[in-house]
Amino acid sequence: MKHRRSVGEHAFDWANTLVLALLGLLAVYPFLYVLSISLSTAAEAQSHSLHLYPRRVSWNAYRIVFESPDILRSLWNSIVRTALGTVITVLATCVAAYPLARKELPHRSLILFLILLTMIFSGGIVPGYLLVRSLGMINTIWALVIPGALSAFNVIVVKNFFQQIPESLLEAARVEGAGEWRILFRFFIPLSKPVLATIALWTAVSHWNQWFDAMLYITDDRKQVLQNMLQRIVIENSTRLIDMGKNTHDVASYTPETVKAATVVITVLPMLILYPFVQRYFAKGIMIGGVKE
Prior knowledge:
With 293 residues, the protein is mainly alpha-helical. The protein has a single domain (70-289), classed as Orthogonal Bundle (MetI-like fold). The chain is built from 16 helices and no strands.
């Protein structure tokens, strides 16, 4: 017999929908505001009205940003850092998780305990800086991708996923004469695409948004990443960038606020484009990778 919903249940559904819609609007509005300001004319950007969409579209702020050699260089540095850091992290995580997924590994419990211990305690900023400097990585891309290449959380997630792969597959590969490296790269990694895609996205977002380590280890402005350039434009001062555009654009056609908003949109856009391609792996990767022994 079909259950007839009461008035209270219908009222709860409407109230729940309204609350979730308001929360969604609160989450989306800041991005719409920044996007609207970046595409607005100078006069509209300086008005104090509600900005949901630009009444008159102007691309002057984006032209100024893309004509800045500093921003284009820092954008390229961020792309290189994100791509290289993601590849290194995924490979290092697989290499570390594979032996831990094997129950015959000697002292496996002790090694897992020591790995988990790093999630609670860390060396700190000063010892980390001294280590990077002693390794000669200051002012290089390696200072941004090597120190944080291995995460204890990622290793545990991938290890748990590897343990779900049937042991019979491993035994069949050994019968065929496959060694450990071949088993890892020919069987385990191809069968672990969901969890590896999830780890790759987490890592890519982390690298793309990082700015503090670049501020510590990078002293050459030509090697700075986009987030540090964004910090200088938004927080410190955008006068230098505005002055740079005076030679090619009408000063009245843009404002510091439109240039700041355009830079923020350019910074956020790559991750928004990347996310839909790996979203389908999230549920399976996290659920299976989160299963305990």
